[in-house]
């Protein structure tokens, strides 16, 4: 493997493995209550929406124009809406008065169904974060081609940016499975998409990649992430924490990720 590719893999791994740090914050603390889980799901939804609209879709609109950018975005939405029809989803309603009278065994069944729903939400979040991390690995690789200082600065900025993403993945998985290893493993795998992105881009596009096609694909990724957030994460947050509190958590997550994206953007060289 070319030395430039090895450098890109090493630098992108710094950012990718920082999702593991976020997972550590989760597994070293106690499992959250349902209300806290709902608030944190709302926060994670804000992270995902900010990435989708303020980063991926925004760049596609600027690069491709309003019409083509929107076509790519909604292509991603429609694609995953079709995929979602083939993904079995448990529907978990709040316990009724009859269910409350069942006793401990009934409560265990309700909690089991809730944990299954939360687990699906965690897997969905991991998919969305992985799709987002993939182009970040490409950015580190392109930055390292300009110089090791540029690549290292970008890798460190992405590492700080990825820590809350690790939390967003690990938290629902830890709650659902009660397994620290499963939560840590899935969060770490979502970060592994960054060095994987370097390898795939280096193999498929050894010379150059059409920037318009790249921006279009990333715009579609933004559509996928927006659909995942509104279809999976927000309903769960509303159910467990209530609409008012969840909406506040969503905007807190959006503000946090927007600040993270800003500091990431100012660390990029102007010509990238």
Keywords:
272 residues, mainly alpha
What does this structure look like?
Helix content is 85%, strand content 0%. The two termini are 25 Å apart. The protein has 272 residues and is mainly alpha-helical. Helix 2 (18-27) runs antiparallel to helix 8 (180-191) and helix 4 crosses helix 10 (211-241). It has helices at 3-16, 18-27, 34-64, 66-84, 97-100, 104-146, 148-177, 180-191, 193-204, 211-241, 243-267.
Summarize the biggest pleated sheet: none
> What's the mean pLDDT score?
77
Count of distinct strands? 0
- Work out the radius of gyration: 19 Å
Helix content class? over 70%
What is this structure, in a nutshell?
This protein is mostly helical and 272 residues long.
Which SSEs are present, and which pair or pack?
Blueprint: H1 3-16, H2 18-27, H3 34-64, H4 66-84, H5 97-100, H6 104-146, H7 148-177, H8 180-191, H9 193-204, H10 211-241, H11 243-267
Helix pairs in contact: 1-6, 1-7, 1-9, 2-7, 2-8, 3-4, 3-6, 3-7, 3-10, 3-11, 4-10, 6-7, 6-8, 6-9, 6-10, 7-8, 7-11, 10-11
């Amino acid at each position: 493997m070319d030395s430039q590719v090895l450098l890109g893999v090493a630098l992108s791994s710094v950012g990718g493995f920082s999702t593991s740090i976020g997972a550590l914050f989760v597994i070293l603390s106690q499992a959250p209550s349902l209300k806290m889980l709902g608030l944190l799901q709302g926060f994670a939804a804000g992270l995902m929406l900010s990435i989708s609209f303020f980063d991926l879709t925004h760049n596609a609109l600027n690069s491709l124009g309003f019409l083509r950018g929107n076509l790519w975005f909604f292509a991603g939405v429609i694609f995953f809406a079709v995929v979602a029809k083939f993904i079995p989803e448990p529907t978990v309603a709040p316990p009724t008065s009859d269910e409350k009278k069942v006793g401990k065994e009934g409560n265990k069944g309700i909690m089991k169904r809730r944990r299954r729903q939360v687990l699906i939400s965690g897997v969905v979040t991991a998919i969305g974060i992985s799709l987002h991390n993939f182009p970040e690995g490409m950015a580190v690789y392109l930055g390292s081609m300009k110089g090791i200082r540029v690549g290292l600065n970008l890798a460190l900025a992405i590492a700080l940016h990825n820590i809350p993403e690790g939390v967003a993945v690990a938290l629902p998985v830890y709650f659902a499975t009660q397994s620290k290893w499963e939560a840590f493993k899935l969060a770490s795998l979502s970060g592994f998409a960054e060095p994987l992105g370097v390898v795939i881009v280096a193999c498929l596009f050894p010379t150059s990649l059409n920037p318009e096609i790249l921006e279009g694909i990333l715009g579609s990724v933004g559509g996928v992430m927006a659909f995942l957030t509104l279809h999976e994460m927000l309903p769960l947050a509303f159910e467990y924490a209530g609409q008012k509190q969840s909406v506040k958590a969503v905007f807190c997550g959006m503000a946090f990720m927007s600040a993270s994206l800003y500091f990431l953007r100012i660390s990029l060289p102007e010509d990238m």
